[in-house]
Known about the structure:
Elements: H1 2-22, H2 24-30, H3 36-42, H4 47-75, H5 78-96, H6 101-129, H7 132-146, H8 148-161, H9 166-187, H10 202-213, H11 216-246, H12 251-275, H13 281-305, H14 309-335, H15 342-360, H16 373-395
Helix pairs in contact: 1-6, 1-7, 2-6, 2-8, 3-4, 4-6, 4-15, 5-6, 5-9, 6-15, 7-12, 7-14, 8-12, 11-14, 11-15, 11-16, 12-14, 13-14, 13-16
Amino acid sequence: MMKSKSNNWNVFGLALLLGLFSTLGPFTIDMYLPAFPEIAGNFNTSASLVQFSLTACLLGLGMGQLVMGPLSDAHGRRKPLLISMAAYIICSLACAYAPNIGLLILFRFTQGFAASAGIVISRAIARDLYSGHELTKFFSLLLLVGNLGPLAAPIAGSGILSFTSWIGVFISLSFLGVFLLIMTKWSLKESNPPERRMAPDFKQQLGNYKTLLRDRKFVGYMLAQGIMTAGVFAYVAGTPFIYQNIYGVTPTVFAILFASNGISLIIGSQIVGRLAQRIPEQTLLLAGLWLALAASVAALVVTIVHGPLFALVIPLFFFVCSIGITSTAAFPLAMESQAKMAGSAAALLGVVPFLLGALVAPLVGIAGEDTAVPLGLTLLMTSLVAILTYFLLVKNISHQTPQHAQSDPDFN
């Protein structure tokens, strides 16, 4: 009994540590959202350009994963994390003291690039240690911690803005980088020993990506969850102006509303974690896709008739909940047969949402700051395309039930 409790605590401690690295992405994306109107006024620029700083960050987060994933396959997980956390600190300070919107956009790209290591490598470590239903359960536990980022980040940003300017937000992010650098140095064990590493060969790394992209089932899961997550980035880009400019809420109320959807992400991921051994992950994934479609239709109707705030918040809550379901279910399904290329596979699973999000996010502001209809249309579009992708690439392929995997004894 004591051994079982000890193992449980070790698993929870590892999930907590990896979850902290996963929160770096949400904090980098979300923490400055309440400051959008202030940044626009400070640089005397448009809402679209401020939103483009978010797009630049998403591009950095996406492209960085394509680099960090293979690097961690070749050089281990710890070394790339150490270098990236040091770079993140420098880039955050550069954002804080950017003299104009153009340089802020550039520095946001580099900040996102550095932050990408925390996202992709934490997931690669999870695949190093688990597979099958065990990976699903562990990944849901990791997301329980990681999804606190979207919940806490806007509240933290709003709290910082209550006594300082948007500059303080980026200085705070640099302190977060310092903390994660220390955690990497002193608390993270290496899960990819030298004998399991891929050769540090650029051509082979490209070949790994080519192999993964030829796997129809992997691509289907990757696109289904990536397209859905792109819808969330549209929500992230649009709601600061919709809530504050159209509905007139304060930055504090916006932060609370935004954080409520962090709770919905947690609910969605934990539903999958609890039901994984009783209901196939594919069934849970499809349920999440249908929930997203229903919620996006409701959101579009509310935006067209300009319904009250609560009528918009409710379908958005369920839409984000569906992301928790689809992401948690799709990840272990996609990673099941990718043990030797865990970093590269995690990179592709991570990069697609950010690249698609970078393309989709600016669409919500295309009609100006006085209408929410583009957000509703964007959510509906992403939901429909994700469902079509799933049925075209995954549904008709027989799925082999994953085997339970044992955790790495070196980590327990």
